[in-house]
């Protein structure tokens, strides 16, 4: 994962974060005219660096990238190179369950709280940014960007195997996995179904699922949750499944 690209952007006109798909739709519907967005799209994290749009083709999906003449604000995770899969797996593997939970909760706080609720110290501090991975070497302190991927966007085969913090506003459902040749003494096992809202059909659809082993999550199927997961995608036929790096590298909360 080398290309620093963005699936979401901060729109100066309405001061909200949106998915790149709305610019792609504008591009398609108005024969390439995206003046509504040109000059008004910024980094979704620091809201400072200006982004440019690259439209979808038969070979690639639409994406956003930073203009070479623009810079991220101090403390933005996108200043740093992406952390490697190995570094991310080691990072999660060396954290206890409480530390993983704190990191994921902090990620949701940054993603879903308004900029006004984040202090300037938190915005411009590498130590406080949950998307910055800090590692010590014998000679210096290294900083890397933890990649993130919205569950409300695309889950593509080109992303298979890459470790992300997946996040989104979703509905959840618990399903028991039927074992083959199971015995009465065996504990039941479960998966957590993640459902996302599709505006075109005006309905919630099954997007992916997460294996939970014997953990049966307490879920209100009618509630909307904010969720964050350290994990990677694996495809089974055409269906994407998220593999969490361990059973506890997942955090969700009801949307307020």
Task: Please give the structural blueprint.
Blueprint: E1 8-11, E2 16-19, H1 21-29, E3 41-42, E4 51-54, E5 63-66, H2 85-93, H3 97-112, H4 120-123, E6 132-136, E7 141-145, E8 148-150, E9 163-177, E10 189-198, E11 203-213, E12 225-236, E13 239-244, E14 250-254
Provide structural commentary:
This protein is α+β, with helices and mostly antiparallel strands. Among the domains are: 59 residues, no CATH class; 107 residues, OB fold (Dihydrolipoamide Acetyltransferase, E2P), CATH 2.40.50. Helix content is 15%, strand content 35%. It has 4 helices and 14 strands. The strands form 4 sheets. Strands 8, 9, 10, 11, 12, 13 and 14 form a 7-stranded mixed β-sheet that branches. A 3-stranded antiparallel β-sheet has the order 2-1-3, with helices on one face. A hairpin with a 4-residue loop joins strand 1 and strand 2. The protein is globular and about 65 Å long. The protein starts with 7 loop residues before the first strand and ends with a strand. About 3% of the residues have low confidence.
